[in-house]
Amino acid sequence: MMTDTAAHTPDTATGPALRPAGVDYPEFLPGWVWLVGAGPGDPGLLTLYALQALQQADVIVYDALVDDRILALAPPATERLYAGKRGGRPSAKQADISETLVALARSGRRVLRLKGGDPFVFGRGAEECQFLHAHGIPFRVVSGITAGIGGLAAAGIPATVRETNAAITFITGHAANGEVPDSLNWNALAHASPVLVFYMGLKHLPVIVDRLVAAGRSADTPAAAVAEATTPRQRVVTATLGTLVEAIRTAGLHPPAIVVVGEVVSLRQIIAAGARQAGP
């Protein structure tokens, strides 16, 4: 389901992009598709290449989690095509999105495929690259800050701390069929990775918690959920692994959200407090 919707088109746009000296800006050529990560939400976390793409694209094919403030950085006349996917809601089919990218590029337009976070972190960017390559469409990939890094930082939770973890694992909370992935080695996750970050995991969090605890992860491990990270609507709930499901239910937290399990969560109190004291 691909829609051309004025309702998703912001009313304002900024002026020309800043172009600091010393940056080699690749030309956004007609007939090309750029797959660009929009980051977790805050427009300030965009890359310079992402900003260039927003201001030069002829058409933007964007996902559900792309913040309206980011879309507003494109000129008002730029066409915007909504191609969002949200669990349990009517969503665009991946095959339709890929076909649309090819058709737009073949029409000679500069096509920006704008994805929340990073295109290659649970973003199906690799699938779209393969499809474009198979159809002879040139493309470029521009990385974005993934929620498992930027979202944690915004919540005052470091991804790594020298004293607590030398590894971090990113995990999707649901597979293509909408269920918890059956290929996960829960015993390895429970024992081998000090910090676990689950994307799209709220729906199946009770199952995830049960499997981690059954595999040997302590129910007393610090844990947190960060919803709508880096946006004005950001909310953070901290608890333990064993109490996180109830804490989220009590707080009324809803997707999109990431869940982090590990001792790094215990540093939030210090880091978040320090950030508040420092001010904007």
TrEMBL record:
<protein>
    <recommendedName>
        <fullName>uroporphyrinogen-III C-methyltransferase</fullName>
        <ecNumber>2.1.1.107</ecNumber>
    </recommendedName>
</protein>
<feature type="region of interest" description="Disordered">
    <location>
        <begin position="1"/>
        <end position="20"/>
    </location>
</feature>
<dbReference type="InterPro" id="IPR000878">
    <property type="entry name" value="4pyrrol_Mease"/>
</dbReference>
<dbReference type="Pfam" id="PF00590">
    <property type="entry name" value="TP_methylase"/>
</dbReference>
<dbReference type="GO" id="GO:0004851">
    <property type="term" value="F:uroporphyrin-III C-methyltransferase activity"/>
</dbReference>
<dbReference type="GO" id="GO:0009236">
    <property type="term" value="P:cobalamin biosynthetic process"/>
</dbReference>
<dbReference type="InterPro" id="IPR014777">
    <property type="entry name" value="4pyrrole_Mease_sub1"/>
</dbReference>
<keyword id="KW-0627">Porphyrin biosynthesis</keyword>
<comment type="pathway">
    <text>Porphyrin-containing compound metabolism; siroheme biosynthesis; precorrin-2 from uroporphyrinogen III: step 1/1.</text>
</comment>
<keyword id="KW-0808">Transferase</keyword>
<dbReference type="InterPro" id="IPR014776">
    <property type="entry name" value="4pyrrole_Mease_sub2"/>
</dbReference>
<dbReference type="InterPro" id="IPR035996">
    <property type="entry name" value="4pyrrol_Methylase_sf"/>
</dbReference>
<keyword id="KW-0949">S-adenosyl-L-methionine</keyword>
<dbReference type="InterPro" id="IPR006366">
    <property type="entry name" value="CobA/CysG_C"/>
</dbReference>
<dbReference type="InterPro" id="IPR050161">
    <property type="entry name" value="Siro_Cobalamin_biosynth"/>
</dbReference>
<dbReference type="GO" id="GO:0032259">
    <property type="term" value="P:methylation"/>
</dbReference>
<feature type="domain" description="Tetrapyrrole methylase">
    <location>
        <begin position="33"/>
        <end position="244"/>
    </location>
</feature>
<feature type="compositionally biased region" description="Low complexity">
    <location>
        <begin position="1"/>
        <end position="17"/>
    </location>
</feature>
<dbReference type="GO" id="GO:0019354">
    <property type="term" value="P:siroheme biosynthetic process"/>
</dbReference>
<keyword id="KW-0169">Cobalamin biosynthesis</keyword>
<keyword id="KW-0489">Methyltransferase</keyword>
<comment type="pathway">
    <text>Cofactor biosynthesis; adenosylcobalamin biosynthesis; precorrin-2 from uroporphyrinogen III: step 1/1.</text>
</comment>
<comment type="similarity">
    <text>Belongs to the precorrin methyltransferase family.</text>
</comment>
